[in-house]
Amino acid sequence: MTATARASGASRARRARASAMSGAPAGSGSAGTGMTRPADHIIVMFGATGDLAKRKLLPGLFHLASSGLLPEQYRIIGTAPAAYVLTDEQFRDHAKDAVQQFGRVKPTGAAWKAFASRLSFGAADADDAQPLLAEVSKAESEIGRHVRRIYHLAIPPVAFGSIIEMLGATGLATDACVIIEKPFGTDLASAQALNRTVHAAFDEDRVFRIDHFLGKESIDNVLAFRFANGLFEPIWNREHVRYVQIDVPETLSIEGRAEFYEHTGAFRDMVVTHLFQVMGFVAMEPPTSLAAKALRDEKIKVFEAMPDLDVASVVRGQYTGYRKEPGVARGSQTETFIALRTEVDNWRWAGVPFFLRTGKSLGQSRQVITLGLREPTLRMFPDEAVEGESCGDGNEIVIDFADPGSIAVRFAAKEPGPSLRLAAAEMRFDYAESFCSANDLEGYEHLLLEAMLGNQALFTRSDGIERLWEISMPLLDDPPPVEPYAPGSWGPKRVHELVAPYRWHLPDR
Ligand code: BG6
């Protein structure tokens, strides 16, 4: 089965949701797209010359501008420490290179000219923000009094505290919002300390902790799949689901990021951030609405129902050759792979294992959620009659959430022929083939837009972040030794024991 959709359903759904979910006053007018456009904004980008700004933020903002989704009046002020100061012209050139290299829309014509005219640069150090202050007040006087300010901290986490304190001390934080990149802390104590620093300058309803996995189309679609259909939610529980897997293998290695990765490792880089957040969407109870508070309350209830991680149910791995990467300690115990089993101790999920796996230098790059369904009460067909499957493994719902994403329901069907033999069959929906993908926003673009609209639904909240660090502490305090695995494999051998008697859905069978 291939689902089809009328007109630009994806974007229409997103637009409807954006206005329905918006907790704070959204914005002004419409861009002719039917979507509320954010109110006038000054966007201050810390780390404007860094990697994230180059790969995602500048290209993403230009795509939003070209789609008519930036405010009518806006300025983007790049900032960096005085040692890296750029002129406005240099910043525009830098942005143009970034968009040329990484953007979906090329920087040409009137659209680029209009965008570039809104870019400027103002240096800021934690102890001297004068050039930035001057730039912000210039932009404010050009746009007018009701302009909003949003700061995007695309900087290394060690710099979060001093920049936030500077924003508070200079008055720049007043009535403004802040977008904070991951990782938010490295353990419970550091996350709590960072939350205290943030809250001294910004109220929680002005804080947007970003997790780009939550900006993916297919993660939103988990909500639509579950709560917009009568078919799936009734089986979304322990009565019908035997196990859940959230599997995010990556083929890429650490790609020269040794300095970051050695101190972070796969658990902090991927699990405590992205995978647990995705799990929150998979496991949550139906929220009373799609508004930010209702949605985030339900997600946090999932985290509250998760027990402390059991170190015996964790496999930490390190790919062979990692210790020879430039910048990596010879005896490094940093994990480049992690798989774990956890549970959600509530009425819906008690006893259902949730298996999470991610790592570098693995066999494929995939982002897959699998729900293994229980076998029918009475088995009238011999198991071995299902071609290529055993133990009912083919009875699954598989959500591929790497954009553009797909959803497949795998089931057993009768093979044509005289004998009653079963074979694996599939009903499948593919985003790429079913909707007008030209309307897509990439994860970061979607989240930048939501932040300007003041909608926190897809951002993490302080109590949720702290709870995730809390349940992680037994693992962080006493990590099991790393086990080696071959690059291109699916992790250390023990990863199969972890899921027994089930099997990992990946690699596809
Ligand atoms: C980042 C991690 O947050 O997410 C990277 O730091 C990882 O290590 C990346 O590769 C994966 O995200 P995506 O969805 O852009 O492939």
Folded structure, characterized:
There is one protein chain. The protein is of the alpha/beta class and 509 residues long. The chain has 14 helices and 18 strands. A ten-stranded mixed beta sheet has the order 14-17-16-15-13-9-12-11-10-18. Strands 5-4-3-6-7-8 form a six-stranded parallel beta sheet. A two-stranded antiparallel ribbon has the order 1-2. α6 packs parallel to α7 (188-201), α7 (188-201) packs antiparallel against α13 (462-477) and α9 (258-283) packs across α10 (292-305). The two termini are 19 Å apart. The structure holds 6-O-phosphono-beta-D-glucopyranose. The site of 6-O-phosphono-beta-D-glucopyranose has 2 residues, from loops. The site of 6-O-phosphono-beta-D-glucopyranose (BG6) has 2 residues, from loops.
Summarize the structure in short:
The protein is 35% helix and 19% strand.
Per-chain topology:
Blueprint lengths: L8 H13 L5 E4 L5 E3 L2 E6 L4 H16 L7 E6 L8 H15 L6 H8 L2 E3 L8 H14 L4 E6 L6 H10 L7 E4 L7 H14 L5 E3 L7 H11 L13 E9 L8 H26 L8 H14 L8 E6 L17 E6 L11 E6 L8 E6 L12 E2 L8 E5 L5 E9 L7 E9 H4 L8 H11 L8 H16 L5 E3 L8 H6 L10
Parallel strand pairs: 3-4, 3-6, 4-5, 6-7, 7-8, 9-12, 10-18, 14-17
Antiparallel strand pairs: 1-2, 9-13, 10-11, 11-12, 13-15, 15-16, 16-17
Helix pairs in contact: 2-3, 2-12, 6-7, 7-13, 9-10, 10-13
The site of 6-O-phosphono-beta-D-glucopyranose (BG6) has 2 residues, from loops.
